[in-house]
Amino acid sequence: MSQQSPNVSGPKDNSVILDIRGMRVAVRTDAGDGPVLVDDVSLQLRRGEVIGLIGESGAGKSTIGLASMGYTRRDCYIVGGNIVFGDTDIRAISLDERRELRGPKIAYIAQSAAASFNPAHTLMDQVCEASVRHGVLSRAEARAEAISLFKQLDLPSPETIGSRYPHQVSGGQLQRVMAAMAMVAKPDILIFDEPTTALDVTTQVECLAAFRKLIRGHGTAALYITHDLAVVAQIADRIMVLRRGKMVEFGDSRQILQQPKEEYTRRLVTERVAGHNFVDVNVADQAPILAIDHVSANYPGKPKVIDDVSLEVRKGDTVAVVGESGSGKSTLARVVTGLLPRIAGDVRFNGASLPARLKDRTKDQLRRVQMIYQMPDVALNPQHTLLETIGRPVAFYFNRSREEVRARAAELLRQMDLPESFITRKTSELSGGQKQRVSIARALAAEPDLIICDEVTSALDQLVGEEILRLLKKLQEDLGVAYLFITHDLGTVKRIANKVAVMLKGKVVAGGDTATVFAPPYHPYTELLLSSVPEMRPDWLDEVLAARATGAATTSALLRAP
Amino acid sequence: MRIRGYKVSVTAQIGIVVVVINLFVALFAPLIAPFDQATPVGDAWADPSAQHWLGLDNLGRDILSRLIYGARMSIGLSLVITALSFLIGVISGFAAAVAGGWIDQALSRLVDLLLSMPTLIFAFVILSVLGSALPVLIFTIAILDSTKVFRLARSVAINIVSLEFVEAARLRGEGWWWIVTREVLPNAVPPLTAEFGLRFCFTFLFIAALSFLGLGVQPPNADWGSMVKEYGEMINLGSAAPLYPAGAIAILVIGANFIVDWMLSIHSRGQGEGA
To answer: Are strands A238-243 and A246-252 parallel, antiparallel or unpaired?
Structure first.
């Protein structure tokens, strides 16, 4: 076993703490047996070791994480194999005894800390609760331990942060408090389930560093579940690649990243590495479609969310607006669509000023700007068929007959590489990627000049997201539509956008051709964002942390700057 | 047994049988009932016999026939009232949710005002002043009930309106009629259907209570609530007469509740995983 970095204070004992052999988890409902979620997975986790479980949604990685605590979701059952924790056979003990293991022995850190904390209690109460209730520690001991953990996790003012409520700390801080909660009782195993997925890149770096310090400092064994190979590379000793409930490949982190044996692993690795050649489209001679001119906007009674923003989109352009949560990038989209009226500046479309309010705009103005959303599940009415969904804009804007609408909808489905037979299906019957294709078809049905894409790939699996980006690019080549791409993912920007605007606190801090903005000399914030995107090298995090320690910019420093 | 792919629980199956039998009896009362509901056919309080299975009542009318006609009156009335209260409540609730702003404020405060008054007392006042004619009864209870429907419909619709497919429809330029009928309504049907069953039960009990107090269905029309009132005294004399209408009320309400419980359970199962 190759331990990448010195295990400073961890115990020498590296006996197997969790031994899973041939585990199978399946859905069993009163209607009969359902699909097998996890099929014949085996792994041996040693003390002090971190194993990364990686795969797309439906790979069974979370199910494995939960099953190692002897827990399954509703209607799911462990139907085969052995799970031995220490010398306890988890499948042989009662549900109550399993519950006793969770918390003191095996602790779980979920993706959404915000959903896991009770908003009505202080952080300290919740951090200490489990270990006090299980009788592991007295309240005073638990408090002392919690404060020490807050320090180790680099939380601000560790002595007093515990008296705050969950809504009074940031998302990244809350995620670290949750790690402290899991760690207070000194469990033998930590299970991290996508703990940084919901965070911004710059926050993710801080959390990753804190988690790694915590695990190494205590020598705790951990399962780290994520869909992001680059993230897991920073923290795991070994990586297991999963697909549809089955193990694809299991090996040392370096080997998985550098010499993947299986084709699927190779695709996961290369999709991230590929596509770093910038998009080169010359649109300088095209007339601007959208001109955002010194626009400011705020929500009633609140400070400005976007402040003096200017931006131009020409025919055939793909302009990316990047920034972290709260930077105002989504608000900019709402201002362009008229959902949030601007308070200053002008938005011109094809040279003419657009009314600030949605309801003052003409049908033709509405038709020319379409939108694609982040969550395809809620962007499409689940009760409508594809014909209703895609056909409605055709009927609404162009007044076509029933047969023409149907023919057009079928044509659009073909363009999206979806079978025409889907036309009578309800949107709720489709997969996430298929739904996103339908969203694109619905936008194109209006024959718009500009499509606003709001984080269109971030709710999708990596490889599905790649396909959607490729489809969007192809459609642009065929139809000449312009895109305004709202995203937090710099990888997406590099791959698809020819222009980019970097937003920070409601202002555009850097903008221009993608190749120029993403090449030195950088704006300090652009540099921070770029350096925060995890790379597929196990040493990446160490290098970033070393570089930052020597005085490079941090978000908090930049945010404090005037 | 399965309905739309969902397994029907045993209690729900019992509920469906009970409700279907009751609806059948209510619908075909004149064909099923052996005697007229208002005509005396023998001595007062005659014991059950081969001819009169449940005996005769205080005026010598056949109790079984009155029970059958009573089903028609009680169930029919409750259905009409519940349907009317849903019509008012759902339309105003959706309007409040979709329009928002002052329309929402005005409707919500009006509903608060109506909800602040005890329902039974309010019904008393209206029915005492205007009399207990059936249309008055129907409108009074329907309006009182629609306040509760309004609150549910509004909160259901607000959750749906905040979803992005409604925003997409707004951005397309759709009018409120399209948004209410095509985007919101189809997604609100499951919770509203369950609520319909529940409100039907409440209305049914409320009419029974009003009739028992003499303000509901007026004689000579039979209705289960007023039958309990008319025969109530006889329980002291060892007669089972009041137990028949009371039992009929209980069985129908429990049966309907079984169905509602099942509908709510499949509805909530659809929303994410449980423990």
So the answer is: antiparallel
CATH number of the B2-269 domain = 1.10.3720.10
* Chain A nearest-CA residue for B170: A358
Average pLDDT score over chain A = 87
* Three-point CA angle A18, A22, A24, nearest 5°: 105
| Residues A379, B274: C-beta atoms closer than 8 Å | no
How much is the pLDDT for A558?
55
pLDDT for A236-267, tens place per residue?
A: 999 999 998 899 999 999 899 888 899 888 88
| CATH assignment of the domain containing A309 | 3.40.50.300
Using a CB–CB cut-off of 8 Å, the residues of A that contact B are 30-31, 73-74, 337, 339, 358, 361, 363, 366-367, 369-371, 373, 375, 378-384, 392-393, 396, 442, 446
Asked if the Cβ–Cβ distance from B187 to A382 is below 8 Å, we say yes
Convert the pLDDT of each residue in A499-509 to its tens digit: 999 999 899 99
Say what the pTM is: 0.80
Give residue ranges of B with CB < 8 Å to any A CB.
7, 163-165, 167-168, 170-174, 182-183, 186-187, 273-275
Domain hosting residue A395, numbered range: 288-517
Residue that the structure tokens 């329980």 belong to: B235
Q: How far is CA A335 from CA A288, A305, A319, A342, B105, in A?
A: 18, 11, 16, 6, 26
Asked, for residue A427, whether it belongs to a domain, the answer is: yes
Digit-coded pLDDT (tens) for A77-89: 888 888 999 888 8
Q: Give the residue from chain B lying closest to A340, CA to CA.
A: B171
Query: Which one is predicted more confidently, A20 or B237?
Result: A20
Q: How many domains does chain A have?
A: 1
Residues in Cβ contact with A142 at an 8 Å cutoff, skipping those fewer than 6 apart: A127, A128, A131, A132, A184
Is position A274 within any domain? no
